[in-house]
């Protein structure tokens, strides 16, 4: 009875705002965390219970989700341009590296969370398609010079001509983002690139994915997980929607190991990036949040531990650009 | 949408899932070795039968949450029981477990109950995937595609081939390690039989020939793709491992052949056998005769060469000694004849 009222209340809250709802559910979990098994959950209204960091500020968790939403809403139109400007184009190499490490086989389903403008998904589809072309070319070439044995067997068996293994395995990519503006930009990009099949766009919260269990072969989240209020929830959701044997991959800014590089990087981040943000996108604060949130994100080893705690195995990370970006990968076994 | 799914999941929770027992006594640092692979194990046990996989417990941290991989038929029961995302749902678990009578206890959090487990470590699971991948080598060659195909037969996603950082190299090295282990087992078995007096000890040459032939016969199912495997083994980052496997193989063969030498012979014998093995392998790749008879003839000839050379070396040594003694004798005679030896 009380439970149904609680559910009703939650539905109402969700109708009001998706993000507030996610923070509420997140908060409920975190408030129940300290090993207390009381069946009745305190549903305090007003998302002002726990506080977290928003850049270098301290805000309540509900507020964080809302402010993150606003940040990305405002940067969405200029997101790709700013990425190129801030990283001097290197972000493309980082994303290519992610795909290279992923090495997807044809027929794989990808879930790109916080995928926004779809960079990873486009690269994924390109990669898989070029691989399929390469395989097709190879079989065609092999069929051009059949050995004597193959010719003799083709005489005896009822020949269907040169048979190519029709891989009826279509790869799919699903882009999921909490922010509709980012998805809109992504859809426009897809249309302009002429990609129509194998791609879908879904609005969803990383802490509570609108997908069933055991759906995807690969789950990627590129430069998105530091904006999630409860990272452990996002990791658990990742484990849930991954198929057994599936792979979790996370590309994220991390701690630079080299002290000299760290100083240069800090100077660049705090002096240059907000200025670029103001000049190009007219938004100083969002990019200030960006660089601050990078500093607040746990380092490589801590994040690796968090991934292992969520239940993934064989967790490894690669440092890219001296630790500016780290690529973590784990398997659901 | 999310609510509907949550409702479904709640329904499944009510149906009961496998026990998710949070161990009070487990150490907070359980990792690696203690993690079982319930999903994989069960799938392997049930032979790809799509029966109920049991949810694996996550690592034994006190903030364990439940995982629901239980594929119960979706329940229409959308009553609003609150979804317990809390840790240690022991009350629910015990109720659920009570309903779950025939479910095998595969919660690895239960320290003693690892009976359902066949694969307790990542290494074992990787070994199992590679074994399954060997079936696909004829189709895909020694590549990551073969590993992905193998993983899929075990019910894992193709993406799990990413676990193997060395890719095809892992597959090839696993295969030769397996073959070497098989050979060593057979040789040990033969050795035991000889010890028990149930079999005649073989002569060295014959033993070597049989050992190398047995080992090379294990390559026969994969002989079409073996050149690719050999080239993978010669890649610089694989050379240390492949050399290690080769040297242990040769060492084992000589040991069971009865070699206990402790001088320079140890090196010469192994070098000779390595040469024989590699050249015979190369001959085997391009051999098209019936049952590789040409290869075995080649092997026989090479071993004969070695035996002859060993014999010849002994003869040279003894001849050399004899010659040296003869020369010494001649020199003394000459000295006697010319009278140098005499004391005046």
Automatic annotation (TrEMBL), chain A:
Alphabetical keyword list: Membrane, Methyltransferase, Mitochondrion, Mitochondrion inner membrane, S-adenosyl-L-methionine, Transferase, Ubiquinone biosynthesis
Pathway given in the UniProt record: Cofactor biosynthesis; ubiquinone biosynthesis
Keyword S-adenosyl-L-methionine: yes
One Pfam family here: Ubie_methyltran
Compartments where found: Mitochondrion inner membrane
InterPro entries according to UniProt: SAM-dependent_MTases_sf, UbiE/COQ5_MeTrFase, UbiE/COQ5_MeTrFase_CS
Main location: mitochondrion
Classification via SUPFAM superfamilies: S-adenosyl-L-methionine-dependent methyltransferases (SSF53335)
Range of residues in the leader sequence: none
GO cellular component, one term: extrinsic component of mitochondrial inner membrane
Enzyme Commission number(s) from the entry: 2.1.1.201
Residues noted as binding S-adenosyl-L-methionine in the record, renumbered to the chain: 117, 177, 205-206
GO BP term, example: methylation
Cross-referenced Gene3D superfamilies: Vaccinia Virus protein VP39
Catalytic activity line of the entry: a 2-methoxy-6-(all-trans-polyprenyl)benzene-1,4-diol + S-adenosyl-L-methionine = a 5-methoxy-2-methyl-3-(all-trans-polyprenyl)benzene-1,4-diol + S-adenosyl-L-homocysteine + H(+)
Superkingdom of this protein's organism: Eukaryota
Its job: Methyltransferase required for the conversion of 2-polyprenyl-6-methoxy-1,4-benzoquinol (DDMQH2) to 2-polyprenyl-3-methyl-6-methoxy-1,4-benzoquinol (DMQH2).
Assembly: Component of a multi-subunit COQ enzyme complex, composed of at least COQ3, COQ4, COQ5, COQ6, COQ7 and COQ9. Interacts with PYURF; the interaction is direct, stabilizes COQ5 protein and associates PYURF with COQ enzyme complex.
Stated family: Belongs to the class I-like SAM-binding methyltransferase superfamily. MenG/UbiE family.
Protein name: 2-methoxy-6-polyprenyl-1,4-benzoquinol methylase, mitochondrial
Organism: Salvelinus namaycush (Lake trout)
Name of the coding gene: coq5
TrEMBL record, chain B:
Main localization category: mitochondrion
InterPro entries for the chain: COQ9_C (IPR013718), COQ9_HTH (IPR048674), Ubiq_biosynth_COQ9 (IPR012762)
GO molecular function ontology, one term from the record: lipid binding
Pfam families for the chain: COQ9, COQ9_N
GO terms under biological process: ubiquinone biosynthetic process
Record keywords, A-Z: Lipid-binding, Mitochondrion, Transit peptide, Ubiquinone biosynthesis
Residue ranges annotated for the Ubiquinone biosynthesis protein COQ9 HTH domain, each copy included: 122-152
Region (Disordered): 49-122
Highest taxon listed in the record's lineage: Eukaryota
Start and end residues of each COQ9 C-terminal domain: 239-309
Pathway in which this enzyme or protein is active: Cofactor biosynthesis; ubiquinone biosynthesis
Gene3D superfamilies on file: Tetracycline Repressor, domain 2
Biased amino acid composition, Low complexity: 85-104
Cellular component per GO, a single term: mitochondrial inner membrane
Subcellular location: Mitochondrion
NCBIfam families: diverge_rpsU
Subunit composition and interactions: Homodimer. Heterodimer; two heterodimers of COQ7:COQ9 come together on the same side of the lipid pseudo-bilayer and form a curved tetramer with a hydrophobic surface suitable for membrane interaction. These two tetramers assemble into a soluble octamer with a pseudo-bilayer of lipids captured within. Interacts with COQ7; this interaction allows ubiquinone (CoQ) isoprene intermediates presentation to COQ7 and facilitates the COQ7-mediated hydroxylase step.
Function comment: Membrane-associated protein that warps the membrane surface to access and bind aromatic isoprenes with high specificity, including ubiquinone (CoQ) isoprene intermediates and presents them directly to Coq7, therefore facilitating the Coq7-mediated hydroxylase step. Participates in the biosynthesis of coenzyme Q, also named ubiquinone, an essential lipid-soluble electron transporter for aerobic cellular respiration.
Family named by the database record: Belongs to the COQ9 family.
Protein name: Ubiquinone biosynthesis protein
Organism: Salvelinus namaycush (Lake trout)
